[in-house]
Amino acid sequence: MAAIYSLFIINKSGGLIFYKDYGSAGRMDTNDSLRLASLWHSMHAISQQLSPTMGCSGIELLEADTFDLHCFQSLTGTKFFVVCEPGTQHMDDLLKIIYELYTDYVLKNPFYEMEMPIRCELFDLNLSQAIQKDRVALLGR
């Protein structure tokens, strides 16, 4: 059983630039993942405007009965969100690690064009290692 079901990276204009499914149940097709990313981008933007407090950065955690959705938004507006088992701890730390991998292996890649889908083998490899390390750490707790 995986603690992490899926990872999405959305560019600042709401386009899905990366999707990875880690769970075996309920796999989404490409259209569903695009719709979900667009919906999350819109909800995140609306939540910033509806917040009664000034300086709200949007939804960071959405809790449901069967999953939690954790979100991290970078200063450039790129959003990283993980869908995981309810009550999974330390997802904020994992999202920051994923962001570091994104900056190290995607943004520093001279062949990557900004706002385009991510196709970087080093990013995929290091991301898999980070997710695996997180799963092992969860089993040890």
TrEMBL record:
GO terms for biological process: endoplasmic reticulum to Golgi vesicle-mediated transport. It comes from the Eukaryota. InterPro entries: Longin-like_dom_sf, TRAPPC. Pfam families: Sybindin. GO terms for cellular component: endoplasmic reticulum; Golgi apparatus; TRAPP complex. Gene3D superfamilies: 3.30.450.70. Keywords: Endoplasmic reticulum, ER-Golgi transport, Golgi apparatus, Transport. It is found in: Endoplasmic reticulum; Golgi apparatus, cis-Golgi network; Golgi apparatus. The keyword Transport applies. The keyword Endoplasmic reticulum applies. Its main location: endoplasmic reticulum. Part of the multisubunit transport protein particle (TRAPP) complex. Belongs to the TRAPP small subunits family. TRAPPC4 subfamily. This is Trafficking protein particle complex subunit. The lineage of its organism: Eukaryota, Viridiplantae, Streptophyta, Embryophyta, Tracheophyta.
